[in-house]
Design brief:
The complex is a heterodimer of chains A (651) and B (271). By secondary structure, chain A is an alpha/beta fold. Chain A contains 21 helices and 28 strands. Among the domains of chain A are: 202 residues, ANL, N-terminal domain (Rossmann fold); 167 residues, 2-Layer Sandwich (GMP Synthetase, Chain A, domain 3). Chain A is globular and about 75 Å long. By secondary structure, chain B is of the alpha/beta class. Chain B has 2 domains: 178 residues, Rossmann fold (3-Layer(aba) Sandwich); 79 residues, no CATH class. Chain B is built from 10 helices and 12 strands. In chain B, helix 5 crosses helix 6. Chain B is globular and about 70 Å long. The chains are: A alpha/beta (651), B alpha/beta (271).
Chain lengths: 651, 271
């Protein structure tokens, strides 16, 4: 099957070979609606003919904006079939961000999920000169809109059904592995987003290699719930789905994801650490409320599972009595728990994007869920390294995916070369040249090293964030932040200290975990802000910071990164305020500039600080919140002392 | 005989002829006159608000429309015919559904089951056939479930479909009550303080749903509401009541400029 080069090629094969098998499903009106591979091909081709009829020219960009829905995935493939380039955008992006992307790629068509997305496009439409037509999937609320250039997706399909297919066939015939498959905007922790151009060769090669690596098969099921604009979703829900022919399930709404997960029981599952963390927090909260008998059964089963589960997963020797006890625990506690989590059938589970806490990681492995880590980025079509089934660890990201070469340069930055590495940044030759050298090596921007014994890659931090303290000691904020975030009460942490004599930190509480704790301890609060500033909350967080300091002190290289002072922010860091990226990564520079007064207060030794912060609501309106924050000192372990037993209070 | 005149609103909706005409309604409880000689009409496709200070007789008015109270004097004309005194369930069969000021849901039942009770008027099979799952009963249940699911989708309450209503927060209960009323596929929907006790965000959501019910489903709506901002934004015409009397009637702008209304709300200095 060497003549399959493009996503449309694989669509043809799937329709011919597994025509009656489910390609996409979506829960709607309480029932899972299904499109077989044959249906999918028919839908896609009808939309593609419609697009050509509406004037799509080869190379036109088609932006897709909405939540994960089968018709939107089909619209992306339809754009490919018509010779266009799909550009999925983040559905929660606000007007400005959308305007930037649409303008930058010169989008001629937009496919929007619903009225909310249409409104965002219309708001900026007069600035997007190339924009020709917008299609919409869910027409609710659009009755009074001007419909000249706002057409329903159903009408597009209907117009394509009657259209002649010769032009589409001609355009399909011209496509090859080097045709652009998709353009994805990077979330951009610094500066404006860049459009990453990926060819069919990129997507098909990585999808194939990674599917073979994990033995993915046509009968697998995935749940598509992560943003369509993220490269991972494109690989899982289009790339790997097309290459292996498995089924992609779309949830009913954002609020029903956990419920839909349970109904589908995916066999191949990806989630960022945050999702696993939320699930674990929910389990723990519910166990706190369970009857003493159930709680004891849970504790005992988990203790056994933590000892035995990972060994069983790795195929290591386990005594017969432990095997038997694990089986009993599986039948009484672990099995039902996995079922509640919707993870009973997971054969291959991945997490990536952020470091995952060892406790969190071990919890899922103990249950017998084959959770692994991978390392990747948009420019690599996701996969750079992956963990093999029997080489899973929480502190590394695994060995190179087949076909990928790795290299660490003198400064410690990780470079890779692979068939998946991107073609270019759209209309940005300078950035392309500074990221990808003529030999094809791509800079990841991450600092890391390869473990000599195992060949596993370990990531320390973003290369540009790694700096030096005034003393010359290494400063790697993320290393400390991750350790802080492993505590369920801490949702987000930002550590500062480059060029200074010591480190300080901002913390965000996790409202679910801390709110539950407050309820249990009869602590009344009326707002996030009040809870975040509660003295007992600060005490708890101080204890966590000090524990992290002890752990950081054990690492000789990074012992200077201990947190001397911290504060708990009065608001959650938010992508709408541009403090985070849409993929929930902190934008360090923005935060540093925005909260300069707070950082200064942390360094000048004041005990309290009053501040005003501008916030953006979901609908784009702005407001101001005021707060007086308490600053706390945390005990640190003296850097000179090698023994962690000697502790003194800072200052 | 419906009035033939139709008008089109600024946002492109069509307001048709009179659906419900209240003529000289007087309602007494013993010696207390809750409603004194009030007349107004509700036209097809409009959102009609009834406002007024506490105790003005607004809920009594809604109860007259829904058939719960029978006025001592006056006539209720529905779709061009005088309506004889009726039981509330008979009124419901004519296509009038309502929500209540104090939520009146079945707390122990799930959201879906509550919404399904709104389909009762559309069920034809009897107790026996339903119990035995006989004849058309299964098909009928599937049809009604499909209708209920469309409402659940419309009001975006999929995630609580199987949650017992008693466990829901207040704002969502209000939405479920609206769902149950909509499940009856009413042509006239009566909402008694749909936004009472809600925060700003919940009010915005509810306003959005009321507008889309009116716009997408074409349902005529009569609502009682205290939040003036909401009333003025949502409604096409407003009736103002005070001490059982009608003191104003017209578009939001007309009502806002009406001196009697200003006096009723702000009080009058007696010097």
């Amino acid at each position: 099957m060497t003549d399959l080069h493009t996503i449309p090629d694989f669509l043809d094969r799937n329709a011919a070979e597994f025509g009656t098998a489910a390609a996409y499903r979506e829960k709607e009106f309480g029932i899972w609606q299904e499109w077989t591979w044959a249906d999918t091909r028919a839908e896609v081709h009808a939309m593609a003919r419609g697009l050509i009829r509406d004037g799509l020219a080869v190379g036109d960009h088609v932006a897709v904006l909405g939540r994960n829905r089968p018709q939107l995935y089909m619209a992306m493939v339809a754009a490919q079939c018509a010779g266009g380039i799909p550009v999925p955008l983040y559905q929660d992006a606000v007007g400005e961000e959308i305007a930037y992307a649409l303008e930058h790629c010169g989008a001629r068509f937009v496919v929007a999920g619903d009225q909310e997305q249409v409104d965002k496009v219309l708001e900026v439409a007069d600035r997007i000169s190339a924009l020709h037509r917008t299609y919409v999937l869910d027409e609710r609320g659009l009755r009074s809109y001007d419909r000249t250039n706002l057409v329903s997706l159903a009408d597009l399909r209907a117009s394509g059904e009657g259209a002649d297919g010769a032009e589409m066939e001609r355009r399909l015939g011209q496509q090859g592995p080097d045709t652009t498959c998709v353009m994805l905007y990077t979330s951009g922790t610094t500066g404006k987003p860049k459009g990453v151009v990926l060819s069919h060769r990129n997507i098909v090669a990585t999808s194939k290699a990674s599917s073979e690596f994990d033995g993915l098969r046509q009968s697998d099921e995935v749940l598509a719930y992560l943003p369509m604009a993220w490269v991972g979703d494109f690989i899982f829900s289009i790339g790997q789905a097309m290459v292996t022919g498995f089924t992609v399930n779309c949830p009913e709404s954002a609020d029903t994801v956990m419920h839909d997960l349970r109904e589908i029981g995916p066999t191949y599952y990806f989630a960022p650490p945050r999702v696993f963390e939320t699930q674990l927090t929910n389990v723990m909260i519910r166990m706190e409320d369970a009857s003493p008998l159930k709680k004891r059964m849970f504790d005992r089963a988990m203790a056994l599972a933590k000892r035995v589960g990972p060994l069983l997963l790795d195929g290591k020797p386990v005594s017969a009595s432990d095997r038997l006890r694990y089986r009993i625990a599986e039948a009484t506690v672990l099995g039902p728990l996995k079922n509640t989590l919707g993870l009973s059938r997971v054969r291959v589970g991945y997490t990536a994007g952020e470091a995952i806490g060892p406790e969190l990681f071990d919890f899922y492995r103990a249950l017998g869920i084959n959770l692994k880590q991978l390392y990747g980025q948009t420019e690599a079509s996701v996969f750079i390294t992956q963990q093999k089934d029997d080489e899973v660890r929480s502190d590394t990201v695994g060995t190179p995916t087949p076909g990928v070469e790795l290299r660490i340069d003198d400064s410690g930055e990780v470079f890779y070369r692979s068939p998946g590495s991107f073609v270019e940044y759209y209309q940005n030759p300078e950035s392309t040249a500074s990221t990808k050298d003529p030999e094809g090596w791509v800079a990841t921007g991450d600092a890391g090293f390869i473990e000599p014994d195992t060949g596993h890659l370990r990531i320390i931090d973003r290369a540009k964030d790694v700096g030096k303290l005034a003393s010359g000691a290494l400063f790697a904020p993320k290393y400390v932040e991750n350790k802080l975030k492993f505590y369920p009460e801490i949702y987000e942490a930002v550590v500062f200290g480059a060029g200074k004599d010591r480190c300080v930190a901002f913390l965000n509480i996790d409202l679910t975990a801390v709110g539950n704790w407050a309820e249990r301890n009869n602590i009344a609060y009326s707002s996030y802000q009040e809870l975040a500033g509660h003295p007992q909350v600060l005490d708890t967080l101080q204890a966590h910071v000090e524990a992290v300091n002890r752990s950081v002190a054990e690492d000789e290289m990074l012992s200077g990164c201990q947190v001397h002072r911290f504060l708990v922010l009065h608001k959650q860091l938010d992508a709408d305020d541009e403090e985070m990226t849409r993929t929930q990564k902190v934008k360090r520079r923005t935060i540093e500039a925005k909260y300069a007064d707070l950082i200064e207060a942390l360094y000048d030794g004041s005990e309290r600080v009053s501040t005003e912060t501008e916030v953006t609501y979901e609908d784009g309106r702005k407001g101001v919140i005021r707060a007086t924050l308490e600053l706390r000192d945390a005990k640190v372990v003296p850097v000179a002392a090698k023994s962690p037993k000697v502790e003194v209070a800072a200052e | 005989m419906l009035d033939a005149d139709t008008t089109t609103t600024a946002d492109g909706r069509t307001i048709g002829g009179t659906v419900l005409d209240l003529r000289n309604i007087t309602l007494r409880f013993g010696g207390v006159e809750a409603i004194k000689d009030i007349s107004f009409d509700i036209r097809e496709g409009e959102i009609r608000a009834i406002i007024g200070p506490n105790g003005a007789g607004k809920s009594s008015m809604l109860n007259v429309i829904s058939g719960f109270y029978v006025p001592q004097e006056g006539e209720v004309w529905f779709r061009g015919k005088p309506r004889p005194p009726m039981k509330p369930y008979q009124v419901a069969r004519q296509g009038i559904a309502r929500t209540f000021q104090n939520i009146a849901l079945f707390e122990g039942m799930t959201v879906l089951d509550n919404v399904m009770t709104g389909r009762l008027g559309h069920m034809r099979s009897g107790l026996l056939t339903q119990a035995l799952w006989w004849g058309g009963a299964a098909r009928e249940e599937a049809e009604n479930r499909a209708a209920a699911e469309r409402i659940i989708d419309f009001l975006e309450i999929q995630s609580i479909r199987k949650t017992p209503v008693g466990r829901l927060p207040y704002g969502l209960k209000k939405r479920v009550e609206l769902a149950r009323a909509l499940a009856a596929e009413p042509s006239l929907l009566l909402l008694d303080e749909p936004m009472a006790g809600m925060n700003v965000e919940e009010k915005e959501d509810m306003s959005r749903f009321i507008l889309s019910v009116n716009d997408e489903l074409g349902t005529t709506i009569a609502l009682i509401e205290h939040d003036m901002g909401v009333v003025m934004d949502l409604s096409d015409r407003v009736v103002v009541m005070d001490y059982g009397k009608k003191i104003g009637d017209g578009t939001p702008d007309e009502v806002r400029a009406n001196q009697a209304v200003i006096d009723a709300y702000l009080g009058v200095a007696h010097d």
